[in-house]
Amino acid sequence: MRKIISFMHMSLDGFVAGPNGEMNWIKVDEEIFSHVGKRISKGDMALYGRVTYQMMESYWPTAGDKPAATKHDIEHSKWYKEVEKVVLSKTMNDTGLTNTRIISDNLADRINEIKYSNTGNGEDILLFGSPTATHALMQQNLIDGYWLFVNPIILGQGIPLFVDIKEKIKLNLLSTRQFACGVTELNYTVER
């Protein structure tokens, strides 16, 4: 079974974006890009909510082609173009989308079909950002792990990572890492 891992930057007080979706407080540098790039380069499927997908789609397909593209831009753009994308959306359809499928209903059944399918290389399916999609999957106990990058900031308000949790979610810590920019990686698996 493939696992759904929520990949998220968050503030020390648990917010994944500011009150209006701002993410300008997130610290990323070459050390983080390199670390994250090694893990995601093994994956063959990415999961997004509609808003995050549209943001990614507006940038990554051509990011590596720009004259000032960084090594990260080139590598991630190549990966993004090749990876199969799954988008949770009630308003989009997959007509005309490249290497992308939409899940708009029967969330648990459709996600479990993906998790238990024999296609792909069996690596984790990373859920990138997408707080609304993360909340929907959390409510149905479909997330198998959390790969969190805690930024050294307290926002005080914004979009929280954890909302409307009905029962405890027990986690096992797999690894931690401190980056020079002050970000701390926390990698958890959900106890089943």
From TrEMBL:
Molecular function as annotated in GO: 5-amino-6-(5-phosphoribosylamino)uracil reductase activity
Bacterial bifunctional deaminase-reductase C-terminal domain mapped to chain residues: 2-183
Any single biological process term in GO: riboflavin biosynthetic process
Gene3D superfamilies cross-referenced by the UniProt entry: Dihydrofolate Reductase, subunit A (3.40.430.10)
Pfam families named among the record's database cross-references: RibD_C
Protein name: Dihydrofolate reductase
